[in-house]
Write a structure and sequence with these properties.
The complex is a heterodimer of chains A (285) and B (423).
Chain A (H helix, E strand, L loop, with lengths): L2 H28 L13 H7 L2 H31 L4 H6 L1 H5 L2 H12 L4 H8 L19 H25 L2 H9 L4 H29 L5 H4 L7 H9 L8 H38 L1
Helix pairs in contact in A: 1-13, 2-13, 3-8, 3-10, 6-8, 8-10, 9-10, 10-13, 12-13
Chain B lengths: L1 H29 L11 H5 L3 H8 L3 E6 L4 H19 L2 E6 L3 H13 L8 E4 L1 H9 L22 H4 L10 E8 L1 E5 L10 H10 L10 H14 L12 H18 L14 H9 L5 E4 L4 H7 L7 E4 L5 E9 L7 H11 L2 H8 L17 H8 L10 H7 E2 L4 H16 L4
Parallel strand pairs in B: 1-2, 1-3, 8-9
Antiparallel strand pairs in B: 3-8, 4-8, 5-6, 5-7
C-alpha cells in the first residue's frame, strides 16, 4: 500500500463515517430503539411505511419529476453547448441561473408563474383572463410543472458548463483527420463529437438526477400537497404530531440513501467509461 | 478509526436510550411530578429566595428556543426584552429557532448523546409539545408558581390555567394568549359569513376562493368545524374519546367532501402554511386567510403584508383560544437565568408592551384586577387598533382547546383520507 493509497482510504473513511453513523442511527430509529418516540424494538414502522400509499405516491412523484427535469436540463445544456459553442456571451449568461440560490429561484418562479403571479397579471391586463383561477395552475399542481421547470432551469447551466469543458478538451485533430478522410460535418458530429460529449457529460447528468431526488428547498415552495416529494414527506414525518410516527422519517431517509447509493454506482460506471474512452483517444492520437 | 469511533458512539447511544428508558420507567412509577435532579434542578432553584436566584443569573446567557417566524415577535424579543434583561439583570438573551416537534426531537437527541447539559435553557411551548415533553420527562420543574410575578397571572381563566386540558403543574409559565380568527377584506367581501353554515353557502357561491393551510392553523380550523358540526366543545372535553372523535371527524369530513370541490384549486392542493395563505390572500387569489392570533391582521397590515382593508373575523359558532407558555428543559445549562427571563415576561411592563398593537398585539395573561392601580388603568386604556376585534366579542366566542390527541388524530386522518384522496 503506497502512502497515496493510504491517504485515499483515509479520505474515503472521513467522508463515509458520518453517512455510516447516520445510517446506523436511522436504522435504530426505524426499529424503535433510538430517537423520539422510541418504545423498544418493533417492525411496525417498516410495515406502516411500506403499506402507506403516500410512500409509493411520493417515490413515484420524486423519481418522475427528477427524471423529467434532468432530461429537460440535459437536452437544453447539450443544445446550448453545441449550438453556441464559441459564444462568449452565452458562457457568461449561463452563470446567471448558476448564481441564483435555489430557494430564491423557486420564490421567483412562484411570483412569476403563480395564478396571481406576474404573468397572470399581464394576462389579466391584456384581457386574456378575468380572474386568477383562469390562469393555468402550474404551481402546487399535481404534476409539479413549475417545480420541474425550476429544477431544470437551475441545473442546466451546470451541465452546459460541463459540456463546454468536454468540447474544449476534445482533440481537434480527430475531427481534422476525419475531415481529411472525407467525413461530412454530420458524420463528424454523430461519430466523433457526440460520443465524446455524451460520455463526458453523462456522469454529471447522473449527479444532477441524484441531487434532484433529494431536493428540498425548491420543492417546499412549489410542490403540491399531494403527492409530496420524498424530502417533504420525510420532513413531515420527522415533525409528526404523533411521536411514535417520527421514526418513519428515518426509514424514508434510508430509502433515499439507498437510491443515492445506486446512483453513485451508476455514476462510477459512466465515469469509468468516460475515462477509458479518453485514454483510447489519447493513445490513438 | 473515525468510522469505528462513530460506530461506537451510535451503539453506546442506542444502549444509553434503553437504560434511560428503564430509569424513566422506574422514576415514573416511584414518583410523579418531581424534577429528575432535585438538588440543582428548577424546583430547587425556584425554592431559593428570589435575590439568590437573581444573583445566580447575573452575568449568564440564556438560550431561548422559540418560533422565529414573525418579524413582529422577533423585534419584541430582540429589541425590547433582550436589552432590558441585560441592563436590569445582567442576562444575555439569545433567541434561536426551534418550535414544537423540533424542540422535542432536539431534546431527545441531546439526551441520547448523553452530553450532560443541553443547549437551551428556555423553550416556547404549549399543547401537544407540552404533552410530549411531559410524557418523555424532558421538562424540569415544578417552578412556575414560585416566580414573583406569578401572583398577577389570571388563574381564573380556563384558557390560561389549562393547556389543551392539561394542568401545567408548574412545569410551564404562561406568557400570552391568542384566539383563532379568519381574515377577510372589507372591500372584496363587505358581508362576510359569520357561521360555518353561512361559510359553506359562501364557498359554494364563490368557487375557488376559500382554502385552509396544512399547518397548525388549518387543523385548528377543522377542529372548530368539528365542535360546530357535532356537539360543541363540551362533547370533546374530559380527555380523548375514540368513539366521540370518530363521530366528530366523520361530520367534518362529510362537510369537506361536500364543500371541497368549491375550494381553491378544487381542494386538490393546500397552502403549506399561513404565510403562503397570506400571500394568496394579499394577491387576490383567495378571499380568506386565517391566523391563530386574532391580532396578526393588526401587525401584518402595519407592515404592509396585508391590505389596509383586511380585518379579523370570528365565526359565531365559536373560535378556539389558547395560551402559550415557557418551559425549562431537563438539561438546561442555566436554570436560574431561565427563571428570571420567565419572570420578566410576566412583569406588567413586558406584558403591556407585548400587547401594544404597534408591537405584537399578543393577549396578556395577567388579571387586571390583581395589578397595581397604575398598571390596571394603563391596560384598560391600551390603545385599540381599528383593525383589532373588540375584547368583549373575543371573549364571547372563545372556546377552549381539548386534549392534544384530537388535534393529532384529525391532522393524521385529514392527511391520509382527504389530502391524499383528493384526486
Amino acid at each position: 500500500m503506497t502512502s497515496r493509497d493510504g491517504a485515499g482510504y483515509l479520505a474515503v473513511a472521513l467522508i463515509a463515517a458520518p453517512v455510516v453513523a447516520g445510517g446506523l442511527y436511522s436504522l435504530a430509529a426505524t426499529v424503535g430503539i433510538a430517537g423520539a418516540g422510541a418504545d423498544g424494538f418493533t417492525t411496525a414502522r417498516i410495515i406502516a411505511v411500506f403499506g402507506d400509499g403516500a410512500t409509493w405516491a411520493s417515490l413515484r412523484f420524486t423519481l418522475v419529476s427528477a427524471f423529467v427535469a434532468t432530461v429537460i436540463a440535459t437536452a437544453t445544456a447539450l443544445s446550448v453547448s453545441v449550438l453556441l459553442r464559441r459564444s462568449r456571451v452565452a458562457r457568461a449568461a449561463i452563470a446567471i441561473p448558476l448564481a441564483v440560490p435555489h430557494a430564491a429561484a423557486a420564490l421567483g418562479v412562484l411570483l412569476l408563474l403563480g395564478q396571481s403571479g406576474f404573468l397572470s397579471r399581464i394576462a389579466y391586463a391584456l384581457g386574456l383572463v378575468s380572474q386568477p383561477a383562469d390562469f393555468p395552475a402550474i404551481v402546487y399542481d399535481r404534476a409539479g410543472t413549475a417545480m420541474i421547470l425550476t429544477f431544470a432551469w437551475k441545473e442546466f447551466p451546470f451541465l452546459a458548463l460541463t459540456a463546454w469543458a468536454v468540447l474544449d478538451a476534445a482533440d481537434e485533430s480527430l475531427s481534422q483527420v476525419a475531415q481529411t478522410l472525407g467525413a461530412s460535418a454530420h458524420d463528424i458530429f454523430t461519430r466523433i463529437t457526440w460520443p465524446l460529449l455524451w460520455r463526458g457529460v453523462a456522469p454529471a447528468v447522473i449527479a444532477v438526477f441524484a441531487f434532484l431526488i433529494g431536493q428540498y428547498e425548491m420543492a417546499v415552495l412549489l410542490a403540491p400537497s399531494d403527492p409530496l416529494p420524498l424530502s417533504m414527506l420525510t420532513y413531515e414525518r420527522a415533525l409528526d404530531a404523533n411521536l411514535q410516527r417520527r421514526g418513519e422519517a428515518h426509514l424514508l431517509s434510508l430509502i433515499a440513501l439507498a437510491l443515492t447509493i445506486v446512483l453513485v454506482l451508476v455514476h462510477e460506471r459512466f465515469r469509468a467509461n468516460s475515462d477509458a474512452l479518453a485514454q483510447v483517444v489519447e493513445h490513438d492520437a | 478509526m473515525m468510522c469505528c469511533a462513530a460506530l461506537l458512539t451510535v451503539i453506546s447511544g442506542a444502549c444509553g436510550t434503553s437504560t434511560d428508558k428503564a430509569n424513566r420507567a422506574s422514576s415514573i412509577s416511584s414518583s410523579t411530578g418531581t424534577a429528575p435532579t432535585a438538588t440543582s434542578g428548577a424546583q430547587a432553584i425556584a425554592a431559593l429566595p428570589w435575590d439568590s436566584v437573581l444573583a445566580r443569573a447575573r452575568g449568564t446567557t440564556v438560550l431561548w428556543r422559540m418560533w422565529r417566524g414573525d418579524p413582529a415577535i422577533n423585534a419584541f424579543v430582540d429589541g425590547w426584552v433582550a436589552p432590558r434583561l441585560l441592563s436590569h439583570f445582567g442576562i444575555t438573551l439569545k433567541a434561536v429557532q426551534g418550535q414544537g416537534a423540533e424542540i422535542v426531537n432536539a431534546l431527545v437527541t441531546e439526551r441520547e448523546a448523553g452530553a450532560g447539559k443541553g443547549t437551551a435553557s428556555l423553550l416556547w411551548i404549549n399543547g401537544e409539545t407540552f404533552a410530549q415533553l411531559r410524557r418523555e420527562r424532558l421538562l424540569d420543574g415544578p417552578w412556575a408558581g414560585r416566580l414573583p410575578n406569578a401572583r398577577y397571572v389570571d388563574s381564573s381563566s380556563a384558557i390560561i390555567s389549562r393547556d389543551f386540558e392539561q394542568d401545567p403543574s408548574g412545569f410551564e409559565s404562561p406568557w400570552g394568549t391568542v384566539q383563532f380568527a379568519l381574515i377577510y377584506d372589507t372591500v372584496r367581501t363587505p358581508n362576510p359569513p359569520r357561521t360555518f353554515g353561512a361559510l359553506e353557502s359562501w364557498i359554494q357561491a364563490h368557487p375557488g376562493r376559500f382554502t385552509h393551510d396544512q399547518g397548525f392553523a388549518g387543523v385548528t380550523f377543522l377542529k372548530m368545524l368539528m365542535y360546530a358540526r357535532s356537539g360543541g366543545v363540551a362533547a370533546y372535553q374530559g380527555g380523548f374519546n375514540e368513539a366521540r372523535y370518530t363521530v366528530g371527524r366523520d361530520s367534518v369530513f362529510a362537510w369537506l367532501r361536500r364543500t371541497r370541490p368549491a375550494f381553491w384549486r378544487k381542494g386538490e392542493t393546500y397552502p403549506p402554511d399561513v404565510a403562503a395563505m397570506h400571500r394568496l390572500f394579499a394577491n387576490g387569489e383567495i378571499d380568506f386567510s386565517m391566523s391563530f392570533n386574532q391580532n396578526e391582521v393588526v401587525t401584518k397590515v402595519r407592515r404592509g403584508v396585508l391590505p389596509s382593508s383586511a380585518r379579523a373575523l370570528l365565526l359565531q359558532d365559536g373560535t378556539i383560544a389558547n395560551a402559550h407558555y415557557v418551559g425549562v428543559p431537563f438539561n438546561a445549562p442555566n436554570v436560574a437565568g431561565a427563571l428570571v427571563v420567565a419572570d420578566f415576561l410576566l412583569t406588567p411592563g413586558a406584558q403591556y408592551e407585548k400587547q401594544r398593537p404597534a408591537v405584537w398585539a399578543d393577549g396578556t395573561v395577567l388579571d387586571a384586577a390583581k395589578l397595581p392601580a397604575a398598571w390596571r388603568s394603563k391596560f384598560e386604556t391600551l390603545e385599540q387598533d381599528p383593525h383589532a376585534l373588540p375584547a368583549d366579542s373575543l371573549h364571547k366566542y372563545a372556546r377552549p382547546e381539548v386534549a392534544p390527541m384530537y388535534h393529532e388524530r384529525l391532522q393524521a386522518d385529514w392527511r391520509a383520507t382527504i389530502r391524499h384522496a383528493s384526486k
